[in-house]
Write a structure and sequence with these properties.
Bound molecules: 5-O-phosphono-D-xylulose
Strand order of the largest sheet: 1-8-7-6-5-4-3-2
Number of strands: 8
GO biological process, one term: pentose catabolic process
Largest sheet: 8 strands, parallel
Radius of gyration: 16 Å
Protein name: Ribulose-phosphate 3-epimerase
CATH architecture: Alpha-Beta Barrel
Strand content: 15-25%
Cofactor: Fe(2+); Zn(2+); a divalent metal cation; Co(2+)
Catalytic activity: D-ribulose 5-phosphate = D-xylulose 5-phosphate
Helix content: 25-40%
Structural class: alpha/beta
Distance between the termini: 7 Å
Pfam family, one: Ribul_P_3_epim
CATH class: Alpha Beta
Length: 225
């Protein structure tokens, strides 16, 4: 298990997204793009046309996190627009398997996101259909919220289920992750780290990425090194 860093551009300068991604290009692995529709979450960000242009302009692959209603209808289009990973929410989707297959059929990785109150167990048998599980460590919608320690037991359980499935799924965490909390999530089994304000709230986002990566690597369970 190596640590993957997927900084979120939610709190970056939306008038210069290409430039903002450029600031982390040498220090991050992916860029996490939060798509919010103002319905599934009470915030509105960007959609398909912007993702399509970013996919062409970005030096990092796009990891699109869809916080939208009806992802069954829209998720495959994000894969077609060039996102290399498309994650939709368990609470919003009607047909998770079909949607995951449609994403994969378009050459992207398929992710399943779980809100803090959503248990992972009902999805245990479906994990083989996915490339990633995203465990939210805040209520989705806004950056800069405090990390929810109450989600850690579910994160550990998700790691157990992934390991038991024998699959190669990534385990992503999103929300309130920074130097104060990364150790907790990595110890609990996360290998793919979203960080928004911890990166873009810093005067030097690339340096913030490097510090986060070093802290995450140091916290990796010994057996996984
Ligand atoms: O999905 C979301 C918010 O819903 C995130 O990706 C945020 O952008 C994370 O920001 P921080 O909590 O790291 O500031």
């Amino acid at each position: 298990m190596t640590i993957r860093l997927t900084p979120s551009i939610l709190n970056s300068d939306f008038s210069d997204l290409r430039g903002e991604i450029g600031r982390i290009a040498d220090a991050a692995d992916w860029v996490h793009v939060d798509v919010m529709d103002g319905h599934f979450v009470p915030n509105l960000t960007l959609g398909l046309p912007v993702v399509e242009r970013l996919a062409q302009a970005s030096p990092l692959p796009l990891d699109c996190h869809l916080m939208i209603e009806a992802p069954d209808r829209w998720a495959p289009a994000y894969a077609e627009a060039g996102a290399r990973s498309v994650t939709f929410h368990a609470e919003a989707v009607s047909a998770p398997l079909r949607t995951a297959r449609e994403i994969r059929a378009r050459g992207a990785r398929a992710g399943l996101a779980l809100n803090p109150a959503t248990p992972v167990e009902p999805y245990a048998e479906l994990l083989a259909e996915f490339d990633m599980v995203l465990v939210m460590t805040i209520e989705p919608g806004f950056g800069g919220q405090p990390f929810l320690d109450s989600v850690l037991p579910k994160l550990r359980r998700t790691r157990e289920l992934i390991d038991a499935s024998g699959g190669e799924l990534w385990l992503q965490v999103d929300g309130g992750v920074g130097l104060q909390t990364i150790e907790r999530v990595v110890e609990a089994g996360a290998d793919t780290i979203v960080a928004g304000s911890a990166v873009y709230g810093s005067a030097d986002p690339a340096a913030a990425c490097r510090e986060l990566r070093a802290a995450g690597e140091a916290a990796r369970p010994t057996a996984a090194r």
